[in-house]
Amino acid sequence: MNPTIELLNAHRSIRKFTSEPVDQATVETLIKAGQAAATSSFIQACTVIQVSQGEKRNALAEMAGNQAYVAEAPLFLVFCADMKRHQLACSMHEAEMQSGYTEQFLTASLDCALFAQNITVAAESLGLGSVYIGGLRNRIADVAELLELPELVYPVFGLCLGKPDQNPEVKPRLPLSVVLKQDRYDDSQDEAVIRDYDETVREYYRTRTGGNKEMSWSEQISGMLVKEARPHMLPFLQSRGFIKR
After folding, report:
1. What is the pTM of this model?
2. Helices vs strands, H then E, count in the chain
3. Phi, psi of 28 (to 5 degrees)
4. N vs C: which end of the chain shows fewer Cβ within 10 Å?
5. What is the pLDDT of residues 52-100, one digit of tens each?
6. Residue 22 domain-assigned?
7. Does residue 67 share a domain with residue 8?
8. First-to-last CA distance in the chain?
9. Which domain holds residue 204?
10. Measured between alpha carbons, how far is residue 180 from residues 133, 177, 183, 186, 218 in Å?
């Protein structure tokens, strides 16, 4: 163990923040840390939109499913997969960009995830807390319109940041044997291991909620995955110039 690994292992989602602002110099430091993340073929396909508190932030909170902390967090960032600047780079050299490939969608989206995770770790090293907001994809077309996103740009997720005003426990992750395989994919023991893990998660929820919630990991996942998962995403992405081939 070292301080970096200890910091990573101590990650919690924070949904309550103090009113202390995050100064712009810190914001720019965090963005630079995000830029230092790995990027596929140097594509650098992430654009971040910092949204100030006010009407636009309130609208995003409503679009994300009425998540109050989106409106209340001192800092809110929207991470956008952005292939528009690459179109510009091609035009600068009188080259016609071949767009719409699924691979481009994947690399741009992964760039955003790597960029954002660097920011999260950097923020936590400064004593800040964070929570990702995938709920922006509930009404992704409205979010894109609100932020005036052009074709070849789409909002992947948001991120709330600020000084924590709560101290939740670390949520237990799956046992290593389920996620780390040797030489081949062998899941022959996974069900037994997950059943034991289910009890760990059930106890975590029981403790966190004072007995108001008792749910295992497999119950949570099975309840989620029997429902449609934002079926509007594919036509929206295709309308923005992604996943056409």
Report:
1. 0.96
2. 11, 4
3. -65, -35
4. N
5. 999 999 999 999 999 999 999 999 999 999 999 999 999 999 999 999 9
6. yes
7. yes
8. 45
9. 176-214
10. 27, 5, 10, 10, 19
